[in-house]
């Protein structure tokens, strides 16, 4: 749920936004997915809807009287993206509809971030959707923090921490959150244990770029090194990590197995341009394989 937009990359525009990336990658593992967002009554919005249709990606995307979102993306020497995100756009104004309420009742996993909550309309829609997911179905409610350009507040983060049961955060975001919440003077792992316990989370995923990644669960931690690959760009790599991890958990894999596949998938995405490359068959099949 959240932003569907165009990433204006040096080599041209590509569809982006964390929710679309997540939904696209999880669908590659044979799991039904749906992008929830909004586009404008313009050519860029029409292109997004056409692109999702061509990718056979299900969506509940409303057309609203605001421009379709765009992000100017520049890459540094290491292929790491810097973003200039346009404000007052369609995905800031996602309405809560009866169709969304019905979708919530059938949802096994939802992924949402902080960026799409910068405006009150989309923030209330996301919160209502998460609240309408029945507690009895054991759904995964993944809060994938996305701290961009100051488009977040302590209150928004606090509310999302309480509503999620899986938190995904990177090392830089964890430092920012720690300063905001008043425990900056301890190491990263201790901060993760504090968040896991304070918000009664099922899992906390910490990604540390080239320094590997961790998955914390009550009483246990999984660590996987980041493989060395030829990086084209890192756009969408984190979303592919989340999608592969969630797909694996939904298919009955252990946390360790899910974590290992998530790292492999995100490493592959880093070798490709843009956020939505087609994954190789061998990676897609690993969700079904018995280790």
Account of the protein in words:
By secondary structure, this protein is of the alpha/beta class. The protein has one domain (5-285): 3-Layer(aba) Sandwich (UDP-N-acetylmuramoyl-L-alanine:D-glutamate ligase). It contains ten helices and twelve strands. The strands form three sheets. The protein has a six-stranded mixed β-sheet, with helices on both faces. The protein has a four-stranded mixed β-sheet with strand order 2-1-5-6. Helix 1 (18-27) packs across helix 8 and helix 8 runs antiparallel to helix 9 (255-270).
Assign the CATH superfamily. Ribokinase
Low-confidence stretches: none
**Number of domain modules:** 1
CATH architecture: 3-Layer(aba) Sandwich
Instruction: Name the overall outline.
Output: globular
The level-1 CATH class: Alpha Beta
> Radius of gyration over alpha carbons?
18 Å
Mean pLDDT: 92
Spatial strand sequence of the major β-sheet:
7-8-9-10-11-12
What share of the residues does DSSP label as strand, in percent? Answer: 15-25%
- The level of helicity is 25-40%
The strand count comes to 12
Structural class of the secondary structure composition? alpha/beta
Question: Count of helices?
Answer: 10
The ordered string of helix (H) and strand (E) elements is EEHEHEEEHEHEHEHHEEEHHH
